[in-house]
Amino acid sequence: MYRTRERQMTIYDYLPPYRGDLADRNRWVLLAQAIDWDAFEREYSGNFGRAGKVALPARVAYGCLIVRAALGVSDRETVALIRESPYLQYFLGFPAFTDTVPFSPRSMERFRARIPAEKVREAVRLLRRLEESGPDGA
After folding, report:
1. Domain assignment of residue 94, given as a range
2. Which of 76, 104, 99 is nearest to 89 (CA)?
């Protein structure tokens, strides 16, 4: 038997699954913990310009490329997914969830010019290993 809803659900009826806390066994949380962001920052910070506009943190640039490659999506879709996901924003090092992001799909071209594709593939392989080991690390 099918029962119809009494009314259309609104955004205010929805309870977010994270309720302010992120699950520590999420694949993006695990990958964020597995990457040595400080070492990456030291290694690649010189590639992000010295004069003019202040560059985004290297973690944001590298993380965007990892997300794009791991999910196999376009630059535009990568930005949209990051805008919608607290897990991806955590992965990129955002201090809190926001529905705006400080870069556009065009920024992704500059990120690719500065970060070697092999470095991105290496992180995606690490993500795949984490996914294969399962949520309990088995």
Report:
1. 21-47+56-132
2. 99
